[in-house]
């Protein structure tokens, strides 16, 4: 299942996308690494995607809070 990512290009994050049905947030970092966080609620994902400081939001609200898979 491919998740459509949209360009972000701010704060070390190149692109990100969210699958509402699977509750997966997929993030591509500027260095090329892609990770998925599972069990992410829609509100958290949408706030991250709209954030003016996506890396800060990611580090504060997502990175340590949700399971990760590469």
TrEMBL record:
Residues 13-66 form the KTSC domain. It holds the Pfam family KTSC. It comes from the Bacteria. InterPro entries: KTSC_dom. This is KTSC domain-containing protein. It comes from Uliginosibacterium paludis.
């Amino acid at each position: 299942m491919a998740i459509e990512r949209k360009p972000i290009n701010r704060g070390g994050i190149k692109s990100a996308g969210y699958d509402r049905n699977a509750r997966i947030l997929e993030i591509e970092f500027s260095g090329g690494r892609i990770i998925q966080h599972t069990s992410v609620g829609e509100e958290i994902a949408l706030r991250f995607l709209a954030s003016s400081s996506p890396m800060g939001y990611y580090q504060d609200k997502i990175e340590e809070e949700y399971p990760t898979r590469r």
